[in-house]
Design a protein that fits this description.
homodimer; alpha/beta; Rossmann fold; Helix Hairpins
């Protein structure tokens, strides 16, 4: 392993950037592959990464994140060592999940709220979980280029979604990236996601506060939002409350308020408020940040904050176990060969779901025992 | 195996009852145990059960259900053979899930709607999934005694929740009981549950239509209802719309209507209506039954009905597999010994959730391979 500092090495320039400014093409799995193909295999020692991270070196943080995102065993090994070193320094940030349909103005909102945080001296990391990465290997925060001011803000670190692997894998990597960002001194972490599919549930399971961004519309503003998300929100924000849209936004807020009223109380003792803002005109954004801080104060006092984090840590341990058990089963050669046949039997009432399951399990455990 | 008809055998009297009238103490796991302890081990052949069931013999149906509920391997073996025989004759009923907080008047509602069905010549089976069975081995439909008329109705078969085992196990058994009831010619099947915990999700996963029963209250009528249930409902019914409560019920219905309006559309092309009724006075109940039938007509036309059933059959196959994989893991000797240690490490930031999971998985697969 090389012990020189990579940010001084021209070989790393394609992979890393300074002060949190990253080019979209430099940060996804493709870049890892390119990095490897070009023979840029020099990796620092875990201690060097750790020291770089805790001293706030964004370039080294970025490289460590790239190792987390890589699926190469040798990268994973170093990544896990870095994470173990960082863990005792992690956990001190406020983790804020932000979800909303495309068109709700997430990028502008993140830029507006983000600049408010960095403007008062806070350090902000913006991560993302992209449900489309599962299918298309594409990347959101394609609209990252719209966060122009935040992108060039030395107190902000913007990182798109890890693009490789299952949603579970992406979630795990994002959780690990949070650890590194916290060790690097980022006091606020945004995790952005589009409110479709399962990704918002995943984000909800790793944040302290879950913010649902909405806009007023013709009654069908929720078309793209999955059922159940509204009930996970710690606050609903109606964005674009400006100009001709101001009154409509207030009306939408009132509607959401009366809907939330029908929901059962949350476990936190917190009643999710419905707020309006204009991220474009920077109105209402300070109030939203105050609300987040009120929530943190309340839930730290009543211990819900820590208990939610504990539940999440346990959840992710169990979820990793369960996902691995499932993967081992469904990727098993015996199972893969038989599954279509059994599924067909079940669908044609030729066999009960239960018997089909047990015959498949039997062949699986036989083959695992014989390995 | 005995080949005489057990309903004529005095040895069976403690276990079975005629015409669907069952004593609460005769139908749970305790009765199975007693049945076994008293040496009443005579079981019919699968063919005899099958023939009895399809000829509509309620007594034989009840015994077969008791075999499904039993965890004895020899009972399970016969039960599975009966189910396989019944499967080709299953699937022709309308499966209706009914959930609501205690106090919403579920029993009265089931009695009122049920009598409407049997009154027009339909055969109705009322099953239940009881979340408390997991913890206390108690049984709901304790208020079954309140369904006085339905209990003595020869066209109705009322069976409390299987009380043994995990929620997953109870769910599986209930699905199997549905198969038997359908083979016995029951054209409508109610599955009742209290809207707390996970049981309503389980019920939702095995019915064609999911009905949420509510009452008007002081704004906190949803206190007992888990977040997310409202979005699963195919209709919301405000019960007890009678006397002084009539206006309040209409107001509550209007509130629910405007809340549902904010939800995204369902996959079925169906807009869940909010209705009011008085089960006590039998008003509005016919309209609810009409609504169920409209739903069935719509979703059979647009194929959502069959596609929901197919999804459910697959879901239960995969759920059985996943639950078994999890059980094998968490009951593994190696895992049980180490789990508390790893959980503690994860909670104190001594280890990442991911590493803890993988170390536990490693010791599990080692021990499975060595078995």
């Amino acid at each position: 392993m090389s012990h020189h500092h990579p940010e001084n090495d021209p070989k790393y320039i394609g992979l890393n950037v300074n002060a949190g400014i990253e080019k979209p093409d430099a940060v996804n799995a493709e870049s890892v592959k390119r990095f490897l193909k070009r023979g840029r295999r020099q990796i620092l020692s875990p201690d060097e990464y750790f020291n770089g991270i805790i001293s706030g070196n964004i370039s080294i943080l970025s490289q460590a994140v790239t190792l987390i995102e890589s699926n190469k065993p040798e990268h994973q090994k170093v990544a896990q060592e870095i994470i173990i070193k960082c863990l005792p320094r992690a956990g001190k940030s406020i983790r804020l999940g932000i979800t909303g349909v495309p068109g709700a103005g997430k990028s502008t909102f993140i830029e507006s709220l983000g600049k408010l945080i960095t403007g008062s001296g806070g350090k902000l990391a913006v991560l993302a979980i992209d449900p489309s990465s599962e299918r298309s290997k594409g990347s959101i925060l394609g609209d990252k280029t719209r966060m122009e001011e935040l992108s060039s803000d030395p107190n902000a670190y913007i990182r798109p979604s890890p693009s490789a692997g299952s949603l579970g894998g992406v979630a795990r990597k994002t959780r690990e990236i949070i650890v590194l960002c916290e060790a690097a001194g980022f006091g606020t972490i945004f995790i952005e996601t589009v409110g479709v599919g399962q990704s918002e549930t995943v984000v909800h399971s790793m944040v302290d506060f879950f913010l649902l961004l909405q806009i007023a519309g013709a009654g069908d503003e929720l078309q793209g939002i999955k059922r159940g998300i509204m009930e996970m929100a710690d606050t609903i924000v109606i964005n674009k409350a400006d100009g001709d849209n101001y009154e409509k936004a207030q009306l939408a807020a009132a509607q959401f308020r009366s809907a939330l009223h029908l929901f059962p109380p949350t476990g936190s003792g917190w009643s999710p408020p419905v707020m309006t803002c204009s991220a474009l005109e920077n109105t209402g954004v300070q109030q939203i940040w105050n609300t987040v801080n009120e929530y943190v104060t309340l839930t730290k006092e009543n211990n819900f904050f820590q208990s939610r984090r504990n539940d999440q840590a346990k959840y992710w341990m169990y979820e990793t176990i369960n996902e691995t058990l499932r993967n081992n089963f469904y990727h098993n050669h015996q199972v893969r060969g038989r599954l279509p046949h059994y599924e067909k039997l079940v669908l044609t009432n030729g066999m009960s779901s239960f018997i089909a399951a047990h015959e498949l399990l039997e062949s699986y455990f036989k083959s695992v025992g014989n390995e």
